[in-house]
Write a structure and sequence with these properties.
Pfam families: GST_C_2, GST_N. InterPro entries: Glutathione-S-Trfase_C-like, Glutathione-S-Trfase_C_sf, Glutathione_S-Trfase, Glutathione_S-Trfase_N, Thioredoxin-like_sf. Helix 1 packs parallel to helix 3, helix 1 packs across helix 6 and helix 6 packs across helix 8. The protein has a 4-stranded mixed β-sheet, with helices on one face. A hairpin with a 6-residue loop joins strand 3 and strand 4. The protein is of the alpha+beta class. It has a domain of 114 residues: Glutathione S-transferase Yfyf (Class Pi), Chain A, domain 2, CATH 1.20.1050.10. The structure holds glutathione.
Length: 262
Amino acid sequence: MTEYVKPQVWSWEGEKDERSGNRPTAGIRFEQVLPRGEQPLQVYSLGTPNGIKVAIMLEELKELGVTEAGYDLFLINIGKGDQFGSDFVGINPNSKIPALVDQSGDEEVKVFELAHILLYLAEKYDKLLPKAVHTKIEMMNWLFWQTGAAPFVGGGFGHFFHYAPTAQEYPINRYTMETKRQLDLLNQLLAGRPYIAGDDYSIADIAIWSWYGRLVEGKLYPGSATFLDVNSYKHLKAWTEKIAARPAVQRGLAVEYKSIGK
Ligand SMILES: N[C@@H](CCC(=O)N[C@@H](CS)C(=O)NCC(=O)O)C(=O)O
């Protein structure tokens, strides 16, 4: 492989696709009106590890008897660039799924960043959020941990293991090391407690399962579960299976997305 000679100032020579594709700039690329359903909560998402968490959370709330958390779930096709349409950027200027609009009150509320969406829903409906101060702090520790840690798995390991045009040893080694360190960390944590924050299932379990549980299940990046030897993380594996068996998780994964149209 030839070594990259770094210019003094980087310039972008990538694709100039009108709608999709990475660019070094943020903001609206085209006008697009997103549909609104009748339900109080409007979710704009996709079946990725970040995207599945909102439907799982909303199905868990249903399971817990919350009747006011009805939702319409719309598909944002990030491959086609829907995240750069004007309405979506108006909800989430960062152009990443998932995003939520709560239209249940006098003024609508726009929420983005997955951990914030989970916290917003948990606080609004007073569910899946520990009450005891120390347990709540522990839950927050792990919820924020997921936000910081998962990009090393998705943007680092997953990208270089699966998506990169050529397999390169240096980045694959670097991110495999970090991903396995994280798996070991979770495995050690779950050796001593049934759920992420302690004795009870919480939004931290939803956030972490959607990345690390799916990785252990072999649902992310073909061949990666074997490559990472996920079966060696026994406690993490048992927790993964326990969460996967929850009816709300199964429903959240199976729920159908509505089309946003053209
Ligand atoms: N920190 C964000 C990350 C969300 C994220 O990375 N979403 C990805 C899909 S999993 C996305 O929308 N990518 C579109 C793009 O990068 O253009 C969160 O936790 O909500």
